[in-house]
Amino acid sequence: MAAGPEMPEVPDPGGSGASSHSDPSKALPAPWQPLLGRPALAELLGHPLAGAALREMSRLLPPRVAVHSLRTFLLADACARTHGTAYDRVGLLAAAAFHDAGLVGRTPLGRGGFPCRSAQLLDHFLALHQVGTVRRTTLTRAVREHMRPFPARDAGPEARLLHFGVWLDVTGRGERQVPGDRRLLTRLAPTPWFAASFSARLVACGLRRVLPGSPVTHR
Question: Disordered: where is this region (predicted)?
Fold first, then answer.
């Protein structure tokens, strides 16, 4: 079992570490910059796990999907701040970064479709960074269940917040809880016709879904 802190910590921006070097956001894609300047993201850029998740997201995801993932995190954080909800901020950023990773590539999908594949990719990433089992379980569940119509009754804050951010960014559902935030983020980092292109990705993803026991499951 990989050892690691179960409680997230954000380093003091004035301390040593990555935050003491040049601005880490400069190494990330230009279309992200307006969103990276938002306080909720800017405060995390010096955190090793957050930085690694963002770098992996830039490697894995197409630009428009990556921007959606950043907006998802910011909308989730806005909801948490509005309601005074405590949650794993760095962990949720990692979950947002990976929640659509299963839509990318041509690997056949098994039971659970792309959300389960995304959760597997997140779990592998977190294990590599020595994140403990309890924390990994919480975050991978959030990714695995983010396409449900509504969060499960026993879902924790990370699962509820990820679900909220995803659905608000794509469909507008829940906008009254954080009025104006979705429009602001869309102006800062627009992805025209994203909902339509996202639906097309879902359809394409469905074409490579494989039922359990099919011989196609062997790579």
Answer: 1-32
In angstroms, the Cα distances linking 73 to 39, 76, 99, 164, 213 are: 12, 5, 11, 10, 36
CA gap 108, 211 in Å, rounded: 9
**With a threshold of 0.85, does the pTM exceed it?**
no
**Residue 50 near residue 93, CB atoms below 8 Å:** yes
Per the listing, tokens 């996202």 go with: 198
Read off the pLDDT of residues 158-211 as tens digits, 9 standing for 90 and up.
Answer: 999 999 999 999 989 999 999 999 999 999 999 887 666 666 555 555 544 543
CA atoms within 13 A on the CB side of 143: 31
Inter-residue contact 113 to 107 (CB < 8 Å): no
Q: Which residues of the chain have pLDDT under 50?
A: 1-20, 207-208, 210-219
For residues 46 and 18, is the Cβ–Cβ distance under 8 A?
A: yes
Q: What is the token pair recorded at 122?
A: 């997140």
**Residues paired with 109 in a beta bridge:** 209
- Coil, helix or strand at residue 139: helix
Six-digit token string for 50: 């957050």
Measured over all CA atoms, what is the biggest interatomic distance in the chain, rounded to whole angstroms? 55
- The first and second tokens of residue 39, run together, are 């306080």
| Angle (deg, nearest 10), helices 48-60 and 63-83 | 140
* In the block, residue with structure tokens 């594949």: 117
SS3 call for 9: coil
